[in-house]
Amino acid sequence: MSNHSEAYGSRDQRREKYTQGKEFEDGTLETLESxxxxxxxxxxxxxxxxxxxxFQRGFGAQLVQTWSYYAQVNNHGKFSKTTSLLTxxxxxxxxxxxxxxxxxxLIRLILTDYTKVLYRGLNNMxxxxxxxxxxxxxxxxxxxxxxxxxxxxxxxxxxLPILPRxxxxxxxxxxxxxxxxDSSKHDSLxxxxxxxxxxxxxxxxxFVRKELLTENFKIMSNLFKFMNKADSDKLSEHILSVFxxxxxxEKSFKRTTKTKILNELAASKIHHFYYSSNKNLVKKANxxxxxxxASRDFSVAFPDNCVWFKNSxxxxxxHGAPITVNQVEFQIHNKxxxxxxxxxxxxxxxxQLGTLIKILENVPELVAPYSIFLTTNGNYDxxxxxxxxxxxxxxxxxxxxxxxxxxxxxxSNIPPATSLVIENILPSLLxxxxxxxxxxxxxxxxxxxxxxxxxxxxxxLEKVSTFYDxxxxxxxKTILLNEFHTRIPDLPIFVSTLSNSLASNxxxxxxxxxxxxxxxxxxxxxxxxxxxxxxxxxxxxxxxxKSKISGIExxxxxxxxxxxxxxxxQTRWWNPSSGGNSLFTLLLKLASSKNASNVITTRIxxxxxxxxxxxxxxxISLISPVMALVNSLQGLSLQVSEIDNMEQVWKWFxxxxxxxxxxxxxxxxxxxxxNYISPFIMCLSEQWxxxxxxxxxxxxxxxxxxxxxxxxxxxxxxxxxDKLVKNVFPEVSDHDVNIYLKLDSFEENIKKTNSSNSxxxxxxxxxxxxxxxxxxSKNLMNISRLPVNKLDAAGILFRVQLLVEDDSVVxxxxxxxxxxxxxxxxxxxxxxxxxxxxIKVLERYINFALPKLAIEKRNALLMKKSRFMCNLIGAVCFxxxxxxxxxxxIIQKVVFxxxxxxxxxxxxELYQKEDVNAFLTSVSEYLSTSALTSLLMxxxxxxxxxxxxxxxxxxxxxxxxxxxxNILNKAANEDPASIKExxxxxxxxxxxxxxxxxxxxxxxxxxxxxETTSLINSFVSSDLNYLVLKAFYRWEHFSFPSFIPSIWRxxxxxxxxIVTTAALxxxxxxxxxxxxxxxxxxxxxxEIAKSTYTTSKSEIFDEILNMITTYIDFYDETxxxxxxxxxxxxxxxxxxxxxxxxxxxxNNFTYPGVETWLxxxxxxxxxxxSERKVISNSFFELLRAMAELLKLEEVPNKLNVKxxxxxxxxxxxxxxxxxxxxxxxxxxxxxxxxxxxxxxQRMVQLLLSNDSYSSIMIKDNDEDSSYRKxxxxxxxxxxxxxxxxxxxxxxxxxxLLTFYSGTISSNDKLILKIxxxxxxxxxxxxxxxxxxxxFIKDEEEEILEAIGDTRLITKEREGLxxxxxxxxxxxxxxxxxxxRPQVPELYTDSNTNNYDATTRCDLVKKYYDxxxxxxxxxxxxxxxxxxIIHNKELVKMVKDDEGNVTYRYEFENFLDCKIFQFIxxxxxxxxxxxxxxxxxxxNLASSLEKKxxxxxxxxxxxxxDNERKESDSDLIKYNSIYQVLIKRILYQRQxxxxxxxxxxxxxxxxxxxxxxxxxxPLHEKAYRWVLSNSTIRSWDIPMVSDVxxxxxxxxxxxxxxxIDMEIYYGELSWVLTTICKGIKTDExxxxxxxxxxxxxxxxxxxxxxxxxRLRELIYFIFYKVQRVADDGGLNLISRNGIVxxxxxxxxxxxxxxxxxDILNNIGTLRNENRGxxxxxxxxxxxxxxxxxxxxxxxxxxxxxxRLILWTEGDSDNVVKRLRK
Length: 1764
Known about the structure:
Blueprint: H1 2-8, H2 11-41, H3 49-56, H4 59-72, H5 76-93, H6 97-113, H7 115-123, H8 127-142, H9 149-155, H10 162-166, H11 171-176, H12 182-186, H13 189-203, H14 206-215, H15 217-225, H16 227-230, H17 233-248, H18 255-261, H19 264-271, H20 279-294, E1 321-325, E2 328-332, H21 335-341, H22 350-362, H23 367-374, H24 386-399, H25 405-409, H26 418-425, H27 432-439, H28 444-471, H29 474-487, H30 491-504, H31 510-525, H32 539-544, H33 551-564, H34 583-592, H35 598-613, H36 625-637, H37 646-662, H38 664-671, H39 679-686, H40 698-713, H41 718-728, H42 734-741, H43 746-755, H44 759-763, H45 768-773, H46 790-805, H47 813-830, H48 842-849, H49 860-880, H50 884-895, H51 913-922, H52 929-937, H53 942-954, E3 959-960, H54 961-970, H55 976-991, E4 995-996, H56 1009-1019, H57 1026-1033, H58 1040-1043, H59 1054-1063, H60 1071-1089, H61 1101-1110, H62 1117-1129, H63 1137-1146, H64 1154-1171, H65 1177-1190, H66 1201-1212, H67 1220-1231, H68 1240-1249, H69 1251-1258, H70 1265-1282, H71 1284-1287, H72 1290-1299, H73 1306-1322, E5 1330-1336, H74 1341-1347, E6 1353-1355, ...
Parallel strand pairs: 3-4, 5-7
Antiparallel strand pairs: 1-2, 6-7, 8-9
């Protein structure tokens, strides 16, 4: 009370103050109130002038003072009224732009000086006073669209204890609940505060909103707590809308933020709204949960890299949270969502059911635990209750979920966990006993639903089984099938259920259908276990004896006939029943009826095809002949008037099918006379004479013609059918035969067909097949209809075939367009029907395209059209992705000799070579590499050669030198332009070393003498081959000794001799080459010097000049000057790269005209870069040559400053800075001129404002992006360093911060250097601008991949947002780089006047190369260690009672974000970094001690709470072990003991992870290691010795051998990973060698059951040793015999690999067995790793004379043996 009295005075004093000011203040308030009322009352034109005058006179401040005064004297009425008046005033001031400034001033006055008045009103906790304050705050938020929200958040303390209390409803409100009147709710404190709060977070920026929601958890908790009890439906809807739109759908909020705000409490309260009577609220709640859990873009679901795996396929670990459901343990990443699902009751309403299923679909890892959770609600015994029906629907929908996308994409040798997969197929609630009870339940609906669940489970099992086959998990598939089989009822149960169903209700067809489907799937999935005994009279026999069958009966028969294949008895479907038809005929009836849909017709046709396929009934054709038969019968069914006579047809079919099945070969022999047409047609013709033809047989003739015509269209021999009709069917007139069955004059016959009354005419509208068959050729381009089945597609192919074979159809644009249009229809159809055999027609066209030599008459038109069709078929296969392998195999088999096509296989001698070339060229786009190379070996057009070479190059293929020779020979007399294009392609192969030798005796693969001689003969065939020859000389297999005997063969070729002389300059010591070179350079040097080189030879001027430049020292000064004079006079070549190189080599800038030339050349560069949109290769060459010239010592003094600056402006302000060669040139340009010459400030501004530079630094992510970023930043660094004082501005600093990534990359180090310089000149730290910190955890990496790279620093309106990534910190630990190159000093006092550009360029290039070599994928240790002290979540500022400020380290946060581990790892760094790390460790130790002491004190105070006591004890123990570890580290430093190797520090950082994982197998050992000693010993690598010794100990204990070996492999994996990642220096290598680690690793490789991953780790350890150890680990060669060890290992693996080239056989292996492919690829990968190691050791051996003698020179033989 005393404090209060001192602040506000006594009651009497306050009353006196109030009385004195009452009259004036009341008058002021009344005036304002009248002004506000007047403005609000005006409707059209509002007059704000009185209000403006009121505030201009200073009454605004008095108003606020009066308001404050009323609060002080507790005049509640006046205070409330004044508060409301302020709210109205702000509302009016916000309504017009002329008064917004006044309102802003009023708000700032309130926030800066009168926030205590706001607090006083809120603390009163009475609706009369508090509600107006809340409305005032809401108006402040709304003012001018949220203009003052940030100021409100800054000045107003949202941590006030009163704010959460405002959300606690009164007892009366709780008693009334949601049913209370809206008016009363609007007056409640909770309602008003929620409206203010929702307005605030909706209008706040995302960053402010996040801070409000996360920092004020008590407010959010109280808001959630009473949502379902006190809030009206309308308010609840508003709350949910804000949650959805402003939290869940806020793109800047990460999932961790969303889960922190919308926690389990929120979900539980919101779920209550499902039971609201307000439908809109129910929909809104459902929308919330859909967004919360099912939305792929906005949900809180964290990505799961396990799904059906127990551990991550990436690293073998499980990162999920452990949960236990009904005594079953799971590791899940979405515990919040799982607990949310437990709230749902999907059996109560479909809305919850649909939402739950969508969440499970989005988060498939929850399916298994949720399925187990359902078992906690009770058993599944059948009952006629709503719960049972609801839970059945839920289970069925769970079973029906698709295979997760993650599983579809994953490629792992480790199979999924069967226990998880089975829950996705058959949830545990569906026990065998409950299913049996359901199948035997008396109510049919229960039995049907049980069958439905089993059917869905079997369907899912089939999909998963196929999926397992695709992934190569066949062993696990067997386990899965066995597990499923034990969970479903036995087959006799289903048979019994089927019999009981028929006995109780014969008309019920649904349940028998379900059981039939079960039998069908059962027979497919468990063929060896499938055997049922049906009674003699059953539903299947009953249906087959019926005269008509329905659709559902057909479905029953369909399944029955399929599972009968696996049963002991077979159905005689071909025999007619007594008084009825055969099943074959019955199915034809059903398929051809008017009411049969296309789906039913297709399904029956497929079934009949399956039945007839094993019998000799139809010939093999393009598609199933049954479809053609059904189609003809459909035409017959359209003849309504003749339907009564259909029985004749059905009887005819019965007799036909019965006989052809029983005696098929009789009809095969009969068909011999008719070109072996189908036996069915022959039997049909045999039975024709027995068909009753009384009445009107005309309809039979119509059908017969239609059927035979259909058969011809799908591939039956039309000549044989024509002969058969004439001999057996005399009733068919010759006129009809000619029109419908003959292919001659097909186009004329179509017109007659369309005008006749045949069945074809009547079917055109219903059958696409008949439509396309009767369409005139001229209309084939205008088909709007699409094929819907195989028969339709076959009709299209037949029409195309007729066009191809019709000689009257010429090959023109119309033919190409029509063929493309029709083939496009096939391609669109194959999108849905991938099995359509389009490849079957390929051989026919190949036969047309490649007539055999024996055929004298060649049809060129038919050949050309057929080649085009082969190309179209290849295009269809390529575009659809189906049958491409078969396409290639057919072509290779026909075209080449032999079945197995190797490279350069010979053509089949049955065909003319020219025909084969033309054919292969037409389909070259779709051929395999071997076929293409064979084609290139033969004579083909240069245009095709160029295209094929480009295709091979783009696919990364290699070609043989013999192919190059062949191409050069055949191009000799071709068009020069074509030759040049081909030569450019060949040169690329040489430059990329993609040309291999055919045969070589040289162990290093050099070209032999005979091969070189032969190749030189090919080169001299044309002078235009100089491009290939130039690349040939740089080829890795080029051998100068093999070349020199042939050198004089190129003497007569000017370009070749010039190129040879220039390229082989380094071999001038050779006598023969020296003579050749002197003759060449003398001849052409004299011609240039005398200016006698004619214009006709100007095309080789550049090559001559390049040669002269190379041999410039061989000319005297006079000759050089003569050549220079000639060069300067050549206007066509003045600005060529060759000219620049010569002038640079001549290096005489005092020669008349050279300086002028230099200025003009620079101007030419500027003009070119300013005007051109595309840069040519020749200009890039010019830039490179100019860069070399500018490095010369004399050049800087000759440069014009204005030209240089204008050129820099042209480049730095354009898009050309994205070109690496341009950037390299700019760096040289900057280095070669005086610092004072460049306008650095302007250039820095140009570069930073260039969007292209921003794009380079932020968006670029290609293979050259690293170098491009470095060059562009180096330019900025150089320009900045010219005048750092002037360039050190806040704008430059802010821009650079957005480009900085905080890594040790070369460009980041340069930016950091600039930032340090700016801070030193401005004396302000950029860390003051940090507004917010973000920390991205592992679970959010998937989001980063979706939205792109997340910058370390981003600029927002509020300030800088700094984002650290946990994954990046992990990488920084694993890939910690100790030797980090420092930024070179380019502008120091020592070289201020030294403009040696060459030295600087070399320094820059060396800096980049060294940085890239060391690795850049880690945070800069110094930057990170200094930055973390600014993060309030890591280091908090604490004030004690005396006002002293201390800093507390939040150890748990250090541990969680891996920074503690990073600190330990950085102890191996340089002294500066290590000292900072030790300082952090000291502070961490101090903070831990204080926290432990505080917890002990609290423990004593709250010792009565046993649960808390126990948890506190665990936490104290948890902190204590880290205290011990830190003290050990600090003690080691105090004792000044031997330095600790980096490997040990890295091992300790990994120990930290084990200490925090109590369930880890190595946790106990890690704990013991920490407690084992008081210091860190320089030779003690944690865990290594234990694991090395443990194997022998475990083998002595036979009882626990199997269990312990699994533990051992886990420990071994940890140790190997630690060594592999931790070995960084030569000292690490020596320490491991002393401990015998390498010998132990070699012994491990011999373990038979060592996992592939562990074996790879061992290989990589030796790989790192070769590069880390100073001598490469030579002792391993001499002492451990590692070379011979790996060579034996390599030979062993080679013997297990296929003999063929693996890469060329991947497609075959994938088709045969995915498991075999995986095994083969693993072996190939292991072999590749071993060969790399052997090649590395070979280089080490050759580097030591002692080892060469020791190995007796066998190292080269090792390489030979590898290449065999």
